[in-house]
Every structure is written in C-alpha cells, then in structure tokens.
Amino acid sequence: MVRERVNNRDFHDHYIVPVPAEKEFLPLSGLYPLSRPLEVDIGCGRGRFLLARAQVQPDRNFLGIDRCLLRLRKIDRKAVALGFLNIRLVQDDALRLLPQLPAESVAVFYVFFPDPWPKRRHHSRRLVSPLFMDLIFRALAPDGVIHICTDHDDYYSAILHHWRPDARFRECEPFFPTEAEETDFSLIFRAQGKTANRCSFQKNQHC
Ligand SMILES: C[S@@+](CC[C@H](N)C(=O)[O-])C[C@H]1O[C@@H](n2cnc3c(N)ncnc32)[C@H](O)[C@@H]1O
Q1: Which pLDDT tens digit goes with each residue over 130-139?
Q2: Where are the chain's structural domains?
Q3: What residues are labeled active site?
Q4: pLDDT tens-digit profile of 108-123?
Q5: What proportion of the chain, given as a percentage, has pLDDT over 70?
Q6: Ligand 1 in contact with 89 (CB < 6 A)?
Q7: CB of residue 26 inside a 6 A radius of ligand 1
Q8: Is the dihedral of CA 27, 31, 33, 37 positive or negative?
Q9: How far does residue 11's CA lie from ligand 1's centre (Å)?
Q10: Strand 61-66 relative to strand 87-91: parallel, antiparallel, unpaired?
Q11: What is the C-alpha to C-alpha distance for residues 45 and 64, in angstroms, rounded to an integer?
C-alpha cells in the first residue's frame, strides 16, 4: 500500500530533505558536506538507532526514511542539537523513494522492526517483499549489505523464504547493535521479554 506522497517540510526542518520530483534521483552528493559511504535506515521511527550510529560512525553518511513526519522532526531536532552533519531525513514511503536512490549508491540498509501486518489478508502490505528485494538490489553498492530484524516469527520466516534462495544475495553475519544503538521498538520488545530475529544479506557482485 503506497500512500499519497507529501512534501510537508517547513523552515524549522534542518535535515529533512524534500522528496525528489517524479523520475528524478535524490541528489545525494549535494545533501551532505562530505562524500562518504551511505547507510540508510528504512522506517527509522524515532531514530534512536540512527542517531547513535551517526555519532559513532562520523565517516559515514546516514539517511533515515519514514512515513511519519512527527518522528522525523524529533530526530531532526536532536541531530541539530548534537551538531551532527552526517544525517539527512526523508518523509516518504520507502517503496516510492527507493527507486529514486541512484543505482549502487547505498553501502548498508537497515530495516528494523518493520510493521508485521500479522493478518494473512494484510500480508501484501508488508514492506519486505519480492518487489522490495528488487529495489534493494538495484540501490545496493557491490558487496553492500542489508540488515533486517523483526520480533514477528511468521514475518521472519517469510523473509528467509524469499532471501535465502535468491542468488543475487548471500547470507552473512547478522548485525547486533550495541546497547546505545538499540531501536525504540527493540527496547519495548526486550522489556516484554521478546527476542528479535536478525538476518543479514550481502549483494553478490557477479549478479
Ligand atoms: C514498528 S516501527 C519501527 C521503528 C524503528 N525502526 C524501531 O525499530 O524503533 C515501523 C516504522 O516504519 C515506518 N514505516 C512503515 N512502513 C513504511 C514505509 N512503507 N515507508 C517508510 N516508512 C515506513 C513507520 O512509520 C514506523 O515509524
């Protein structure tokens, strides 16, 4: 389900960048002061991970994508207060924005706790789908990696079912965040005694 695209930025927004016009690419080279490998957090939520990661990896550029402008504004204010220069944010549906990232431009994607849509009739709304895989493959740099985690067992099985046999990727070591990097949802689920399933896939160069 792709919602109406909006461009609600206002003058208070520092690091929230406009969605590109139709058929144009996000102008990555003009977004950041320095050209660095790009890491993208899809569905970054309130940005606990994004902010922590951008702080410990100043030699990388970070892009947070989320549909929720209020959440992005909170990240924006924190990033400004902390003086980060390597974070940018886009309010958009990931399925709309991913085709507008330049091909092979992303070193790392993170997808943490995507909405599980547990009812069978809603499975088609899940973000991590075969279409999503195609978009990720195009945008990933050679040897680029995607890290996924979910607390939802059925969603996790569906993800493995699609990614493991796909020759365009190879499974690699899962990513475990430090305590400071745990996402807001990760903290909520951990407090409930739940554990997250984590998997990672690297782009195969020869594909
Ligand atoms: C369950 S929350 C997880 C947030 C964060 N990753 C975390 O672990 O705390 C899912 C987030 O993904 C965003 N989201 C869901 N579908 C999306 C889509 N198609 N494109 C962009 N963001 C999406 C929601 O707005 C929400 O902030």
Answers
A1: 999 999 999 9
A2: 33-203
A3: 115
A4: 999 999 999 989 999 9
A5: 93
A6: no
A7: no
A8: negative
A9: 24
A10: parallel
A11: 9
